[in-house]
Amino acid sequence: MATLFALLAIAAYLFSAISVTGRFFHNQGPNRMLSLSIAALAVVFHSFYLGDAILAAQAGQNMSITNVLSLVAWLITLSMLVSSSLLPNTILLPVVFGFSAFTVLASLFVPVQHIMHIDMRPGLVIHITLSLFAYGALVIGFLYALQMSYITHQLKHKGAGLLHSSLPPLMLVESILFKLILLGTILLVIAQISGFIFLDNMFGRGYIHKTVLSIAGLIVFIVLLAGQKLWGWRGKQVISLTIVGVILLSLAYFGSRFVSEILL
Questions:
Q1: How many domains does the chain have?
Q2: Fewer CB within 10 A of the end CB, N or C, for the chain?
């Protein structure tokens, strides 16, 4: 049954991604509400698959790198869908849907395991939950940074490309970007504090690289917010620091586990 849910989620995500992309090039393309409805079904199928993939392990919870990545993708997709009627994110949806389809595919066909017993450690549940929400908010901010970069490029070159009519106002995208970074940074600070409270040794052998990289990422985002507030940073500085911060956090969360679970 889990395989069926995974395949249905992948098919629905890909259909939605292609359908939304079609509207960028043809105003009379596939119906937007139909595309988002199919994407919502994909999220439901995805959640059923994740429940089985993570919770079905007899010895605990299978928090493998592919399952965690798929969980992050599910969280981001759900957030983007819920906010799609309020925020200008249509141009980002095909990327998000495609990435979610990829993570489900990876989780299904890359059989790795990392068994944990988070049900017996409520403090660890709090730390992981805060970390996932922080990372999700900052990754969405990263997507908005890419969108802002594209809009800036179009404005500078006065482009009238195929996607130009679908682009939202630059100031609106920038405002959303800073709000997402602020939210993600606050959650990341709380996640770090919870880690020092609930985990035995954040600078121990199994955690030191994650701790150092995540603190480095946090510093990058704090500097970004301070620069925007004190010196009015915009444009390239904001986009570059957002990308650097997300890369550091990605290495902290997934770097060593990719090596140990996938390559070795």
A1: 2
A2: C
CB 38 within 8 A of CB 31: no
Tell which of 63, 92, 120 closes a domain: 120
Exposure string over 102-115, b if 16+ CB within 10 A, otherwise e: bbbbbbbeeebebe
Position of tokens 């985002």?
221
Q: What is the pTM of this model?
A: 0.85
Cα dihedral 28→11→77→124 (10° resolution) = 180
Considering the domain architecture, whether residues 93 and 145 belong to the same structural domain is answered as no
What domain range includes position 32? 1-120
Say which amino acid occupies 43: V
Provide block-wise average pLDDT over 10 residues at a time, the chain (264 residues).
Answer: 92 93 66 88 96 79 88 94 82 92 92 74 84 94 88 69 61 90 95 87 76 93 94 87 94 74 55
**Contact, 43 vs 77, CB < 8 A?**
yes
Q: What is the DSSP string of 36-81?
A: HHHHHHHHHHHHHHHHHHHH--TTSEE--HHHHHHHHHHHHHHHHH
